[in-house]
Fold UDP-glucuronosyltransferase.
Amino acid sequence: MSAKWISVLLLIQLSCYFDSVTCGKVLVWPTEYSHWINIKTILDELIQRGHEVTVLTSSASILIDPNKSSDIKFEVYPTSLTTPDLEILFMKWIKKMTYNMPKDTFWAYFSRLQEIFWEYSDCIERLCKDVVFNKELMIKLEESRFDVVLADAIGPCGELVAQLLKIPFLYTLRFSPGYTLEKLSGGLLTPPSYVPIVLLELYDRMTFVERIKNMIYMLYFDFWFQIFNMKKWDQFYSDVLGRDTTLIETMGKAEIWLIRTYWDFEFPRPFLPHFEFVGGLHCKPANPLPKEFEEFVQSSGKHGVVVFTLGSMVRNVTEERANTIASALAQVPQKVLWRFDGKKPDNLGPNTRLYKWLPQNDLLGHPKTKAFITHGGTNGIYEAIYHGIPMVGIPLFADQPDNIAHMKAKGAAVSLDIKTMTSADLLNALNSVINESSYKENAMKLSAIHHDQPVKPLDRAVFWVEFVMRNKGAKHLRPASLSLTWAQYHSLDVLGFLLACVAIVTFLVIKCCSFGYQKFFKTEKKEKKD
Amino acid sequence: MSAKWISVLLLIQLSCYFDSVTCGKVLVWPTEYSHWINIKTILDELIQRGHEVTVLTSSASILIDPNKSSDIKFEVYPTSLTTPDLEILFMKWIKKMTYNMPKDTFWAYFSRLQEIFWEYSDCIERLCKDVVFNKELMIKLEESRFDVVLADAIGPCGELVAQLLKIPFLYTLRFSPGYTLEKLSGGLLTPPSYVPIVLLELYDRMTFVERIKNMIYMLYFDFWFQIFNMKKWDQFYSDVLGRDTTLIETMGKAEIWLIRTYWDFEFPRPFLPHFEFVGGLHCKPANPLPKEFEEFVQSSGKHGVVVFTLGSMVRNVTEERANTIASALAQVPQKVLWRFDGKKPDNLGPNTRLYKWLPQNDLLGHPKTKAFITHGGTNGIYEAIYHGIPMVGIPLFADQPDNIAHMKAKGAAVSLDIKTMTSADLLNALNSVINESSYKENAMKLSAIHHDQPVKPLDRAVFWVEFVMRNKGAKHLRPASLSLTWAQYHSLDVLGFLLACVAIVTFLVIKCCSFGYQKFFKTEKKEKKD
């Protein structure tokens, strides 16, 4: 290679270093399944804009596949877990959350949820230790001189790696149970009178009884529920960083929180300048369908088609449930495309076809699609919103019941319970969303809101990643509340002081009055005596 | 005119009617002085984008000049007031606020402020009545079929006109004292632990004593201070609308609040989705200076120039103050351009030139400009931020002390008191902001933040005006809190109920225990006796 070329390459290298806008280096701490599908859209766009993206992933990763052809770089760290181990763990948690949650008492329900979250957190902690205690890897990461870490807040570690590499970090997040992380680390406010606590399936307009429920749950989440085993995490973070700290404090250093919803989906609620609502950033126009799909869709005639999937984590249901569903689907005049990987139901109608994989977005964007039967994952719901398709929600776990509740509140969905629904329930629900015009109209309204933003969600997400790289943070957006103690934040010290002042003044006034009264009374008595 | 041309014109007319994006009709309820200068930028941009803009203005208007050549239409309504009347009133209020505010006790200070605001509100009410009771005008407005009203929230009436015309409305606003309107009508949250109440000159990071002060002021504004004479306004609005209503309720129907600040200026604080921070929307790159100015600026050599103005409302100061200022200015090596309309100070230095008008933005954007001496109006501060110029603030009234406090907190300004400052104070302040590099660096940081936004503030402001026209509102951004009573909003009913439950349960437990204890005790006693 000639000296001239070497100097040109050097110049390019230097331009990358000095101009982080056009050539930044992004390190990513992702989470599996739909979270990965969502964050990958941001990563692809960052690459498109000339940045270098490296994903930190374990040798046991499930969906995050370093071997798939992509411009994303992968830094695969070894772990004692295997992919099947991880898959078994995730499936166990999902099964527990879907079928084995004691819904009768809230205490039992959330104790079980906490138990599952702690198991999950132990697993993430193990992976995190495999990263930060891997000296060779950490030296390599340090030498790579990344500009920023983009992390999924629901799986801690990204913030620890960022602190060790002394670089700023951003989060992407759908929610944390009870908004714990958003509140404690992000400073988000959730006034219980009109901000329903996530997981309760409540709306923003609540009755008195619902507001009582919301308040009790808020208090429960604030004072009892622990999303992760904080004691363990605090100790781990303190040991690694060599100073007394906590997970919540470390997460609180996030520059920006990219929340994966928007006001087409979310109820209007207070937020802070370092929160950016980028829901539906993965949405895009539909591509033409593969021939096989297009032919089947076209064969539906004027009735159109129904698209049915339960997401990237759940590919089948029990035989009995599958039969119930198949029986309902057989009775609609539409053709149905069902993503299903189990035993073919006996009563599957001739109008229903089973597929191991569906081009979901392309189908939802097809003019013949009339309805979407969905488990209510945020990604899927956003694709339906994007294309204006009404939904029948069969939520399974996590935020799904809440997501469907939001769509129901906005008049774009009907909700069913996977465990108790009958064929007639599903049939009625499908007929409603297809034949009652309000569902389609409301879905189209949400679509209009989604499309009518000053900047597309993906562009906003990428803008803030680039902003943090350009400016080495976004300190001007950081609320001062994050530096206050809990008592200071709630002005308890101030109110205590003011109440004490009022008490002292009241006490003195009463004392003075009674002293004056006694003196006057005694003098009068004495005078009378005299 | 041929039939062909008539049909073409009809088609254009229809396209305006059906496609309000490209041809909306905007009715404007403005406020005088700097507020008009700011809102006019939005109006010019709306016209640029093909909309029709009509400004409702009285025959007594001061700065709002219907005769100035512009594409803005003016609907001038007759009023018994005259322009000199209005000018005298404004000057009286300014003088009171600048020189006659009893700063020693807060009670006296805010009582005087309320008094001034009530006088102002009476004046606005008079103008408002001149509009809504002018039947001919109201019929004309109705027939004009406007799509939206854009109003300055600090001068009520826009919302009333919008309600009468049955069209949506948006606000533009810098602030209202104590954030009263933003809180009561907009639902904005102001946690007293880190959101300093406007007018207190406090920062977001407060000491314990400052937080006590902030809490007391917040309580004062919440429970005592009335920005307008609400009883009068409520009666007026109820009479006109033919139903029991209040000013606060009517203002609460605003679709969007365009707040004239941004996070380069404001401390990070909670807000709601229907609040959009569009501070500095009027800022633009500097044009070349007129020859006379350019020559004077160039004559400053390496020392550069200082720009000095006290805004559109105050063109001079007392003779004694002018001499103090002139004496300080004479001692700096820079050339000084001073907007001043009074008697020429005796000790005016040869480096200082007086002007009745200054091309402020073009001067601030000139590479030779080293500092800006300003009264701290939001418009001027934003021009300094835009061009990265450090400031010496001499705040006079309204939000100006607060604005300068913000710039001081961000390290881009030094603050002086117009009434007490000496020549030495001004000289030291000027030397500091010019020679201590931190001031320039911080001003440049603010400038970088201002320029580094996903969408320019003017584009965002215009986007939301257009959005409201396109969608006949922005209901999806409206927080449910606006439908709650004060007690419901603060969850007082819920807390009361829960406390009552706790009290009853405690009472029953104690009763049961004491009953059990007595029974056990008596039995034992009896047994002992036996």
Remarks:
- Chain A has two domains: 24-281+457-483, 291-451.
